[in-house]
Every structure is written in structure tokens, then in C-alpha cells.
Amino acid sequence: MPALILITALGCGLVSGIFFAFSTFVMPALDKLAPDQGIAAMQSINRLAITPLFMTALFGTALLCLALIVWAALAWERPQARWIAPAGALYLIGTIGVTIAANVPRNDALEKLDPTASSSAARWASYVSEWTAFNHVRTVAALAAAALLTYALTVED
Asked: Domain containing 10: what range?
């Protein structure tokens, strides 16, 4: 069990780090570009992000969180379970749920924009603001999940 908790915590931390990079310097850098350049760059990033390695990190960690939640529900009398269950829920809701409900739909809408169209600049400004706000949520949720799982490793039965 400790190995599964550790691997899941590392996955949460890795995903949080990726999202942290976007929140702290990738999106601000793209926002400093001319709108057509920022749009084109983000469209490229979104296309290239869908790789087996990134999807495994993002959704593989979600599967591990789900497995840990099931374990925690079955072993609720164990002190670790009280840290593991909320960690898994944080990741599934705050990271995966927000990704699916907020970030992906914005990415899909951005993909349809013509970067050179005059109306795209205003939509880009909105996208950067909204997408980044939701990305902050994903970052904090994944980091908090990693912290709770790491703490769970220190809890004695």
C-alpha cells in the first residue's frame, strides 16, 4: 500500500507542477504576445499536449486516486484512509473535473478561432483570464492531493 500511495502522490505532484508552470509563466508569456501569436501558440500547445505520456500522468493518476478511494472506503477504520479519501476526491474533482468541465471546453473553443480574425483578440483576452483562473484551481487541487497523500504515508496504523 505505501508504494501505491507514493506513486499516486508523485503523479499528483507531477501534474500540479505542469499546471503550476502554465499558471506562473506559460500563460503570462503567451498573454504578452500579440493576440494572433498567442492564439496560434496556445492552439499548438493544446494539440501537442494530447500525448500518451501526458495523458498517462493526468488520467493514470486519476485511476490510482480512484483505486485509493475504494481502498479507503473499505478500510475506513485505518487512520490513513481519512487522508487518502479526501486526497483522491480533491484530485478527481479539482483536477480532472475542472479539466473536463472548464479547461477543455475553452481549449475546444480556442481551436476554432482564426488567430488573424479581428474578433479573436477579445476572445483571446477572455480565454487567457478564464483558462488561467481554472488552471489555478487544478494546480492547487493536485498539489493539495499530493500533500495529503504524502502525509498519509507518515500516519501510523
From this structure: 2-152
